[in-house]
User: Fold this.
Amino acid sequence: MSQKSIKKLIQTCLDKLKQLDFKESTIKRHRRHLNLLMDYMRMNGQNLYNETHGEKYQIDIFTEGNANDYKKKCIKHSINLLNDMLNHVPMRRHRIHLRTFPLPGELGNHVQSFLKQLKVDSRPSDQTMQMYITALSHFTVRMHQDRFCPENLDNVAISRFVASLQNTQLSVCVPLRRFLRYLFEMNLTKTDLSIPLFYIKSHRKEKVPSVYDTEEIRKMDASIEKSSPVGKRDYAIFLLASRLGLRASDICSLQFRNLDWDRNVINIVQCKTKKEIELPLLAVIGESIIDYIRNSRPKSESKTIFLTANAPYTTISIPGLSSIVSNIIYKAGIDTKARRHGAHCLRHSLATRLLEQGTTLPVISDTLGHSNSQSTMIYLSVDINGLLRCSLDVPPVPDYFYMQKGGWFYE
Assistant:
């Protein structure tokens, strides 16, 4: 087990934090916790640190009951940083512990084979794959507990399992239905047990897009502090979402190679549809991106344009970008009651404005990068003025209609 002088190790760790441009308050917090660890070791006659000392210190501190949950988390984070420095592990902001889902028994083995085949046939996204693993793990664990295998699996067992589900019924039944179909096709079950699950469908109501009018978009624009480093980044993000209607995923993954300055266009392959689109690099957008890159963007080897404001600098996540837009709307003082306020609402607002200006659906579809025009049809539900122009006048009804014998109005 490697060990080093606790004093030198702490100083190396703090220097690294400063080198990575961590906030001064963050460095100060880690210094405080690590100095307490050093005092603890010296009281016990120790000068050379290894991971065992960090574990023992946490046990003793937490046993005394003087630390609340937040303080425990901070102490653990500081010691994890020290352990990373001791073991020459690249410093990172958080330790991510990926949750594993068990797949026990014979059914579990068939699930693993099914997932391998699914990757080849459908090439699902990581998010979809995780949904399948989670759902089928719940199913195999339950069947293993009840001693079911493909030979004795029946509709009663599956119905009992589905009935035990509450809010997750639909998300579990879709992967389960496909897996049961796989068992039947592989001759592992005598009957197709997936058929009853086809009747479990979503009953969600049709969603109406949340939109903001031109005046509200102007208020958002005016509320952004364009002189600050974070404001320069947020302004460029806001323009890409509101002027071009880019999805949050496409803005997050936007790279320098996607910007063609000679032709003033943006070329991207959309993350959602995998469709390649070309959009105009408007002057105001180009200037805002250049301003961010030259004056605000942290020094980084990352190929993506937009990075987090705090070290270690990484690509902005989709939830993080939606939070940026949400904060812009909040600072603009706009009432968001009964409306969504993430990045996607700016995309909806652009589509609605284009529709109000008389732009045809195919053009809007190409602008937004929809895979087909049917996806664009939803915006008709919010174009009230356009729908009124399409309405037909009710023809006048002559008086004799109301006076004819046998009619509803005849007396």
Notes: The mean pLDDT is 83. The beta strands are 4-5, 48-49, 259-260, 265-269, 276-280. The radius of gyration is 30 Å.
